[in-house]
Amino acid sequence: MPVINRIADFQDDLRAWRQDLHQHPELALQETRTSAAVAARLREFGVDEIHTGIAKTGIVGVIRGREPGGAIGIRADMDALPIHEETGKPYASQTPGVMHACGHDGHTTMLLGAARYLAETRNFAGTVYVIFQPAEEFFGGGQMMVDEGLFARFPMSQVFGLHNWPALPEGVFAWRNGPTMAAVATIEITVTGRGAHGAQPHNGIDPVVVSAAIVQALQSIVARNVDPMDSGVVTIGSIQGGQAFNVIPETVQMRGTARWFSPKVGDQLENGVRRLATSIAEGFGAHADVIYTRTYPATVNDPEAMDMARRAAVTTVGEARVQHLEQPTMGGEDFSFMLNAKQGSYIMLGGRRTPDDAGVHHPRYDFNDDLLPIGASYWATLAEQLLPRTT
Ligand SMILES: [Zn+2]
Ligand SMILES: [Zn+2]
Q1: Least buried of 100, 142, 277, 390, by fewest C-beta within 10 Å?
Q2: CA distances from 5 to 11, 66, 122 (A)
Q3: How far is the centre of ligand 2, averaged over its atoms, from the C-alpha of 331 (Å)?
Q4: What does the pLDDT look like over 175-195, one tens digit per residue?
Q5: How many whole angstroms from 329 Cα to the centroid of ligand 2?
Q6: Contact 173/323 with Cβ under 8 angstroms?
Q7: CA 163 to centroid of ligand 2, rounded, Å
């Protein structure tokens, strides 16, 4: 039984909604059009209550079943990325420099599909909260919703999330207990030396040379401090400094990210970045300011809630298309904040059509619309299985 028939019936609507969202992507905490479109659809479906303005643009829809019972939450993210789309698709982004390159337009649409089906059929006991959160990519919208009382205002026993995954075959669910996605920090280092003529380095302190030494040394944290059986990443993704070929600049700015799973490695990475950057700069007679910000915690699946999710996935696509995810990913995910506050789990849904499909966060990434009815059916199945009717 692959997809719920009633949901397959409105597959064309799902595709149209998804492509409309795709044409009008909005960055974190600016999802006003998206949020209005979600609220309008929920109203159309006859969802019992629609709470808007949670974490600015976030929405919670309340759908009640035919009899009293427990409650669960299902969460989708709504924001896009600052990427200029290069797919050339007829439904490509109409906003230059902004693109749904992570498929959150697809996640939002899957949850809309489930909400439509659940509001229409109500074939469950209790309450389903459909949670549309802003700002997954930046600013931690998941944390903001929790801080604004998500779980106090809408009491639920579990919360569930899903991400499309272009590296996995289309329609395959992948699950994993425990740490699944990494904790994240952002790194900003400003090296201040003394500017000089490019031909007179002895009159200055060259922050470019200092920065080069720092970038090299930072790689030794994972290679030489972290236990080889643990995981960690330090990446410097941006170096800015100087304008001219013959001028030694006064400052250089570097920006990067660190990723880890265990708290011990998290501390080693932070201490290592701070220690090396400041002491190396000092050794050269320069100065380094380090802003190291831990943004998202690791995404850790609860085994009991993962079992619930896996059962719904098996019902939706069959045992053969539900796989164990052998390796966690070093990508970060702000659903981690919800999982820190509430029992729950996060599952991956494969979307690969060809071996050359672009991955998420790539300008040629193209969300696979065939996943829409699968994702919506999975959510609806999960709700019906966890909130079974007694009559
Ligand atoms: Zn993303
Ligand atoms: Zn994403």
Answers
A1: 390
A2: 10, 20, 15
A3: 9
A4: 999 999 999 999 999 999 999
A5: 13
A6: yes
A7: 6
CA–centroid distance, residue 332 to ligand 1 (Å): 8
- Whole-number Å distance, alpha carbon 379 to ligand 1 midpoint, is 21
Q: Is the dihedral of CA 319, 325, 331, 335 positive or negative?
A: positive
Exposure letters 113-133 (e unless 16+ CB within 10 A, then b): bbbbbbbeebebbbbbbbbbb
pLDDT digits (tens, 9 = 90+) for 86-140: 999 999 999 999 999 999 999 999 999 999 999 999 999 999 999 999 999 999 9
Joined together, the tokens standing for residue 287 give 């100065």
- Would you tell me how many other CB atoms lie within 10 Å of the CB of residue 336? 25
Phi and psi for 251 in degrees, rounded to 5?
-135, 160
CA atoms of 130 and 42, how far apart (whole Å): 10
| pLDDT digits 0-9 by tens, 334-384 | 999 999 999 999 999 999 999 999 999 999 999 999 999 999 999 999 999
* Distance of CA 342 from the midpoint of ligand 1 (Å): 22
